[in-house]
Amino acid sequence: MQVERFCSNPLCKTPNVTRLVKNGWSGKIIEHWYDDNNGGHLCEKCYNKKVRKSTMSGRRAKHEVFVHYYGENYHCQGDKYLHNECKMNNIICLQLHHPKGGGDKQRREIFGENICGVRFYMWLRRSGYPEIDLALLCANCHMIIENDIAEAKYR
Question: Between these two residues, 107 and 15, which has the higher pLDDT value?
C-alpha cells in the first residue's frame, strides 16, 4: 500500500509525518512543516518559496520608497557627505541614513522599538511618504559616515 505524500519535495525525509498549514480562505496547502523532534521545520522547498516571496515584497517596498524620494534613477548620495564619486545604484547595497542623526530615536517614537529595514520602508509607504530628512547611501558610505560619527565622540 502506497502512503500519500504530503510534501512534493522528493528530498523531504518525512513526507508523511507532517503538519500542513492551509490558507484560511482558499483551503489550499501553503506550507509543509515536518517534525524532526526539534520543534519542526519547513521543508526546504517551502522554506525557499517563503523566503523568496518575503525578499521580493521587501525589495519592492524599498524600490517604491527610493523612487518616491529620489526619482527613478536613484543612486548613492555619498558625494554630498564624503566628497567621493560613489554612484552605487544596486538596491541591495542602498540604505537610508538620517543625516542629522536621531534615526534610532525617531523609530522608537514611531514604533515603540528600534525597527529598521523592510518594516521601515513599508511604514514609509503606508504612511504616504512623510517628509523626513533622509539620505540615500550605499552600505560602504553609510558605514564610513557612522564610523566617523562614532570616532568623533571620543576625540
Answer: 107
